[in-house]
Amino acid sequence: MKALAETVIDDTLQRIRALVGDKGYITAADAMEPHLVEWRGLWRGQARAVVKPADTAEVAEVVKLCAEAGIPIVPQGGNTSLVGGSVPYEDFDGIILSLARMNRVRAIDRMNYTMTVEAGCVLADLQRIAEENDRFFPLSLAAEGSCMIGGNLSTNAGGVNVLRYGNTRELVLGLEVALPDGTVWEGLRGLRKDNTGYDLKHLFVGAEGTLGIVTAAVLKLFPKPTRRETAMVAISGPDAAIELLARARAASADGVTSFELMPRICFDFVLAHIADTVDPLPQRYDWHVLLELSSTSPEDDGLAEKLQNLLEKAAEDGLVLDAAIAQNQAQANAMWKLRETVSEAQKPEGASIKHDVSVPVSRVPEFLRRADEAVAKAVPGIRVVGFGHVGDGNIHYNLSVPKGGDNQAFLARWEEINEIVHDIVHDMGGSISAEHGLGRLKREEITRYKSQTEMELMRKIKGLIDPKGIMNPGKVL
């Protein structure tokens, strides 16, 4: 029976190869390697082949053939997942289906403020194309030079502009999806209003490829900002950050694009390990906020003056200790480099246990106090690198091994430390995954925090849409 099954699988794989051609079918070890390894090196899986269809019809036919033969599929975009969602397991017996060849922008409707794109489009390319059409696509994150929009949609990616524009879920109007039986749901509608039953696209956004394969999407565009004002602000602490955020939103007519919290340790790591970085402030401070305001007004609406007045008043009230306002784009880029390279700068400092959590914005300071105290008690000398999108309550609560500590001994306490942090997050009504998803990293842990009713609903949806369980098996559920 096993031999018969292998014959069926081999025959199916040959049919897939004939369908996509040699350009779309990879079995050579060196060419497969980038698709098998999680980018941080935490996991390395295996697969029978990497299949790269050229269009939606080929995706659908590949999925249909796999469904008939019972061959599991791991959908993959740029393979930048931070939770192991885009790589196969070590004992995986199926194929990786890469969307990399599907990278066309199908249409741009400037007056509807939309563009229709294929799943393999690199995020930075979409930002550029929108700008070339005098429009703005606001999704922006550290991996934008290699991540693909299909993966962004499948993980409901966040990034630095969520405060003003929302997560990826808020940036999509329609989807095209290859379902687990090989049929295609054609939902590429560019409508802001469509009240005709269940909003099916939201099933697939954030599902991490477990319900189907996103092949194309209609994305929202926005007016292109004409001015940006960026400042690195030293503050008295996290409580001051929350107050400053509220004031900034009011003073700028809700024009706050980004509001990133950074403790001193972020600066110390980046300045020590990242070339061409400099502290824009003349002395050391314990806490900082990277604040950016933007405007789409064709005329000068006094944005710079608004920022200056905001910071001066906050300084008078003791919230702001010092501030550097970027005088040009180069200075703004230098400030952003300090923020965007924090994770990279952590690597030379040794092992780290990372958390992507969210709590209500108003409770971020409380979370930091409680979590800092709890992890310091558990691991004396632990170095807390808690930074990120405080404007939407999302903190990347990364913990570095104590100075001179044993990396392996520290990582061996991963589950213990996770439980400490995540229990606090849950107690505060937060989420243990704000923007990275569950993948395989948090698949089991989520069952501790979601109710039995929620988990059962998710399993029912998965069972109904993917009854054979071939779509990204072992992820999320």
Per CATH, which architecture of the largest domain?
A: 2-Layer Sandwich
Class from helix and strand fractions: alpha+beta
Tell me the distance between the termini.
29 Å
Strand proportion: 15-25%
Q: What is the overall shape?
A: globular
The total strand number stands at 19
What is the C-alpha radius of gyration, as a whole number of Å? 23 Å
Count of the separate structural domains: 4
Mean pLDDT, as a whole number? Answer: 95
- Low-confidence runs (pLDDT<50, min 5 residues)? none
Return the CATH class of the largest domain.
Alpha Beta
Q: Give a short account of the largest sheet.
A: 5 strands, antiparallel
CATH topology of the largest domain: Uridine Diphospho-n-acetylenolpyruvylglucosamine Reductase, domain 3
Helix content: 25-40%
Number of helices: 16
In spatial order, strands of the major sheet run 5-6-10-8-9
Helix/strand layout:
Layout lengths: L1 H19 L4 E2 L2 H8 L12 E3 L4 H14 L3 E4 L18 E4 L6 E5 L4 E5 L4 H10 L2 E2 L12 H7 L6 H4 L6 E7 L5 E4 L13 H4 L8 E8 L1 E2 L3 E9 L2 H14 L4 E8 H10 L13 E9 L7 H14 L3 E6 L3 H12 L1 H5 L5 E2 L2 E3 L5 H15 L4 E7 L4 E7 L6 H5 L2 H14 L24 H14 L12
Parallel strand pairs: 2-4, 3-4
Antiparallel strand pairs: 1-2, 5-6, 6-10, 7-11, 8-9, 8-10, 12-14, 12-15, 13-14, 16-19, 17-19, 18-19
Helix pairs in contact: 1-3, 8-10, 13-15
Sum up the structure in keywords.
4 domains; FAD binding; Alpha-Beta Plaits; alpha+beta; 477 residues; Uridine Diphospho-n-acetylenolpyruvylglucosamine Reductase, domain 3; Uridine Diphospho-n-acetylenolpyruvylglucosamine Reductase, domain 2; five-stranded antiparallel β-sheet
